[in-house]
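Objective 1b: paired records.
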Amino acid sequence: MNNVLSDDVIAAISTPVGTGGIGIVRLSGAESLQVADRVFVSPSGKSVTSFPSHTIHYGHVLGGDGAVIDEVMLTVMRAPKTYTREDIVEINCHGGNVVVGMVLQAVIDAGARLADPGEFTQRAFVNGRIDLSQAEAVMDVIDAKTEAGVSYSLNQLSGGLSKKYQGIDDELLHLLTYIDAALDYPEYDVEEVTENELDQNIHHMIDEIDDLLQSAKVGKVVRDGIDTVILGEPNVGKSSLMNKLLHEEKALVTNIPGTTRDTIEDYLNIGGVPFHIIDTAGIRETDDVIEKMGVERAKQMVNQAELVLYIEDVSRETSNGDQKWMSLLEGKKVLHIYNKSDLIDEDDQASLKDHLSDNQIVLSVKSEEGLQTLKQKMVEMAVGSDSVVRKDDPIVSNVRHISLLKQVRQNLESALESMAMGMSVDIVAIDLKDALDNLRKITGQSLGDDIIDQIFANFCLGK
């Protein structure tokens, strides 16, 4: 994206690929209005360059041969009150793949160039409208899997997380200013930071970083979801449970053992936590080649799973298979489900419930008794007590942020170690400067252009 600092006009389709009611072609750059004026004709005969900012106009887009491509609505947004802080034009046309592509080609022929992935947002960053942390939140909003994910990402986009980073930045800068002033201008009566003040401030910053890193546990769940495998022997109710959780007949259910031969996957939102639910083939010893492949795939899914819902049929005796397959679950978070409780009498149900551990529940998928408890347990096992984080609290969900925050914390710990060893304050300042540099890499204040290009390259076209 070496062109990002130039004044050329970029263009891209900003709506998803496919057929829809409306398709949007977006332009940004100093000459956007002039480029649009070469392809847009208004019934009033007015030029696009004469339109006031933040207005929308009816007209037609013409091709290079003067033929009408489509009937459109054109929106003009003049700098600096735009997404990129540059002049922006958006052409709203009909949403077919062909017509949107023709409109895009028309503006390219008129002088625009095709935008790189994420280039609109990169221009917003370069032009100072947002910092890098907020820019990354744009894709988090787009990729969010739940309403909670959208809320957390919008909080980051609006600067909630940036304010947290800025608070630590201000504190570091304050300490370094006093230290540098005292070292560089000893002839002046500059108030020195005492060792006690330095110690308190560094510990306070470490506490702030620990809070952010703690929030990352929720952030990872909200951002990526929890890979959750439903496991058990044939005909214990795995597919029935998946269908009940999803409120649709996603998996085929019969009384014939081995009906599910391959994994079936979908996303489920429980209390703002996205679960990637994977229904697997019933695990058992079999000579059926296809079913055997399904069993092996189920084992592979267990290895990747972050949570396993292991189901047993409580109405029948525990098999040797159940005992054998439990060895697959060592080291995994497992919620043990005793299903088909509707097939045993009340006394047996009561006795079973009296002997349950925290990660065991009694369930009847058929009657839905225990289903709400199952959902609550799934959320607890996914995020634990961290699920109480409010949606307006800033959370860290980006792996790059987490890595850099850990480096900042290590820099601060090194500063404390230097103090404990009695080293001079200028040595301590080196660690504090490293901490400040790593912190500013999060917001993009001290990050190389190659890394910034790599970050924005992961964005979608038109954003």
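Objective 1b, second protein:
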Amino acid sequence: MHEECGIFGIYLDNEKDKIARLSYLGLLALQHRGQESAGIAVNSGSNILVYRDLGLVAEVFKEGILNTLQGIAAIGHVRYATAGTNNWENSQPLLQEFAGGSFALAHNGYLINQDELKKYIPLTFNSTDKYTTDSSLICEIIKTTKEKEIEKALEKTVSQLKGAFCLVVLTENKLIGVRDAQGFRPLVLGSIKDGFVLASEDCAFPIIGAQYLKEVQPGEMVVIENNGYREKQILPCPKKALCIFEHVYFARPDSNVFGENVAEIREKIGRRLALEKPVDADMVICVPDSGRFAALGYAHQSGILYQEGLLKNSYIGRSYIQPSQKLREYTVKIKLSAITSIVSGQRIVLVDDSIVRGTTSRNLVKLLKKAGAKEVHVRISSPPVNYSCPYDRDTPGKEELWTNRLSIEKIREWVDADSLGYISLSGLTGVFERNNPSDFCTACFSGEYPL
């Protein structure tokens, strides 16, 4: 069971009645990372209470539920199940007993050594069909360490894990964050009055009045207790493997991921794309929302007018983050509409973040031409996705990857674009200032897997 999720944690010395509401707000800010389920676990100082259910954050948590969740610390989770059944049992956080008491855990990532890990846990775990996630496997391994101190149990556990993972863990008196040795996924630490916050992205901080402190480093564990925090490097980091798709697609534009602002990076990608794949056109439009800043960059660099030619229905989720192709096709059709008065008779550059299955591009080109567009030139702000990603992303098998099966010209013909151009891999990785090209995992483009 792959998972692409958002995680959140908060520790406050006071304001027990506010902990759930602040967690709720933090999860709302991370809703783009998963829309299938949401959950919050709170620690009252003596026990841990978890509430989780299927649905969006605002659907799961009503006023009455939030009133019951009081404590000094909390963790939260929004989930996207990239494979398998979306059921309540797989929602998070998870509550688990261990030798030192109890803990709750929320996880973002995907392990690539599940079969090996299952050899070391009781047969009862392997025979229980409902436990299908990496998160439940991690919880079981923590339990089997027999350690009474959660930090020692976590150190022993993560040393056995292989793949991408960020964890937030809650005990009766501690909030802990852990990031894998390669740093595939982001995790950041912030400060708030009388406490601290952990989150997948720092876009969760302003809404609750928190300030960014630092990025949790690859292989690092951050332990928050007694209104303070301490750091410990528990895994060596021989080489970073930062997921570049965080900047291309996953992260919110106002987030700072891997030390660089997402909106600024996407704008630079668009500028580079305009240099590499120029075209004569009347206007540049984006596929909202993840294509917007790349489209602005393309327009700024090329001198072509930028316009909003597609209208997004704000009440429809992200089409990439849908668990089946049929749902993706349905979502694309209802979430975007063309503004005929703007696009009719125009030669259009349509900028999108990626082509994985081709669903969105084909439908949008058809939509724009039906609205009267004279030409539609598709420009993609990432290289062709040729390989499946085992670390987190729901890239399909090779048989579904269009760029692996077809030439760029054949894809252009299929989506019915007048031209099609992708940014180069060197162009994409070359726009960063604080990260070197070798710091990124680009396996879905190059086939060079870091693990």
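The CA atoms of residues 146 and 432 lie 44 Å apart. Residues 262-276 form the longest helix (15 residues).
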